[in-house]
Amino acid sequence: MSELPRVTVVGAGLAGCEAAWQLVRRGVPVRLVEMKPGKYTPAHHSPDFAELVCSNSLRSDQLTNAVGLLKEEMRVCGSLIMEAADAARVPAGGALAVDRAQFSGRITARMREHPLAEIVEAEADAVPEGPAVIATGPLTSDAMSRAIAGMPGVGTLNFYDAAAPIVMTDSIDMEKVFRQSRYDRGSDYLNCPMDEKEYNDFVDALLTAETAEVHGFEESAVFEGCMPVESMARRGRMVLAFGPLKPVGLRDPRTGKEPFAVVQLRQDDAGGTMVNLVGFQTRLKFPEQRRVFGMIPGLENAVFARYGVMHRNTFLNSPGFLDANFGVIGRKDLYFAGQMTGVEGYVESAASGLVAGLSLAAALKGEARPVLPGFTALGAMGRYVSTPNRSFQPMNCTFGLIDPLPVDAQHKRIRKKAERYAAVSERSLQWLKAQAFVKA
User: Fold this and answer.
1) Which residues contact 135 (CB under 8 A, 6 or more apart)?
2) Using one digit for the tens of pLDDT, what is the confidence trace for 171-216?
3) Does 163-312 match 7-155+317-438 at the fold level?
4) Is the pLDDT confidence value at 394 over 90?
5) DSSP letters of 175-243?
């Protein structure tokens, strides 16, 4: 075989690093272009690759959850992101949460040390010539956004995303909180219990707090999974109590009862020195965050390591522009990956990079690109972004996207949801493990 061409991967986030990794592990040389540390977006702070800008959680790690299946499929395919996440894991009950610095640091080192990876620290402002993966993320620079928007068939859209604040663990009043995971699944979370009056006072404060201006912000343009806590409060007084502050599955050991509402705090680093407020994405001004979130029992004197922020995200109108492997229709050597394709979430973004990388590697080596069926999470996700619909919006991986199990000869189906989802996961993983393309 003749020497393989070098692939340009633009963007060293989760999707770009995963795409680059899938290419180099299959013998394809890569030029990984990243504008940090010379230039940062408003949401980025670390010079390392694959920086987690919002939560430190990669969500459920259970095979009865669709994103848990997606992670396991990625592990089967030799995912760099999952390798780093498993190595940087911190306690989080049934979820996979990571120490941010260890996670990003491991990925950065693996990419910089690989002999087939060339790292270029520069801002890309044009669509690359030759084979490429564009994974510049939802915070793509203005110059690159203009270049992408100029491609035939592109329709770009925007939505708004938010990050939750992080506080120092030693600034929490431990006399007022208790340690417990829901439904007695360990003790990985700190819980700040509220009685009815405390909850109502907190909601009142949220409703009157001053918010930061975000250019072009409209509540209807916010992705549901990252809805600011103050926006949720405006939907109804009890929305938070049935949402991120729901007390279900928790019992205050001091009273033996379920609190009226609970704010959960999740460990954010391996040493346990920081925690983030679960579900507390916000665009409140920084002084207002100190004031309002200081009303939460146990956080009266909290020291903020990072305040919550909000920023605009950009994504493509992918159906009709991308195929199910995240390749550009009409240009066989160009792929997109990450949240800008219309997948939503850390894991989904990395997974799209995995599919793009292994697909482009196969094409460059003269092999057939993998065809991922809709009964796999990877295949269902690619099908979603490539299938036309009337109102294309970013989507997390759910079992609703994955082909259901066929009914048996008697037209019966597994009635218990957990058992049914476990069977869906088993079917996918058995098929995936038998495929030659997963082995580099």
Assistant:
1) 9, 10, 11, 13, 15, 16, 19, 336, 337, 338, 340, 353, 356
2) 999 999 999 998 888 889 999 999 999 999 999 999 999 998 755 5
3) no
4) no
5) TS-EE--GGGS-S-EEEEEE-HHHHHHHHHHHHHSPBPP-TT--GGGB-GGG--HHHHHHT-TTTTTTT
Please give the pLDDT value at position 406. 83
- pLDDT recorded at residue 31: 98
Residues whose CB is less than 8 angstroms from the CB of residue 67 and which lie 6 or more positions away in sequence, other chains included: 58, 59, 60, 345, 347, 348, 377, 396, 397
Q: Which two tokens stand for residue 165?
A: 């604040």
- The domain locations on the chain are 7-155+317-438, 163-312
Q: Is the pLDDT of residue 223 over 80?
A: no
- Residue 266: is it exposed, middle or buried by C-beta count within 10 angstroms (0-12/13-18/19+)? buried
Count other Cβ atoms within 10 Å, centred on residue 133.
33
- Mean pLDDT, the chain, integer: 90
Helices within 236-391 (DSSP H only): 286-293, 346-364, 377-386
Helices 80-87 & 14-24 angle (0-180, nearest 10): 120
CA distance 57 to 96: 6
The strand ranges marked E within 35-155 are 57-60, 89-90, 95-98, 117-121, 132-134
Architecture per CATH, domain 7-155+317-438, reads as 3-Layer(bba) Sandwich (3.50)
pTM of this prediction? 0.77
Looking from the CA of 66 toward its CB, the CA atoms found within 13 Å total: 21
pLDDT of 415 reads 78
Q: Residue type at 192?
A: C
CATH for 163-312 is 2.40.30
User: What pLDDT digit, counting tens, does each position of 318-356 carry?
Assistant: 999 999 999 999 999 999 999 999 898 899 999 999 999
Question: What integer pLDDT is reported at residue 1 of this predicted model?
Answer: 44
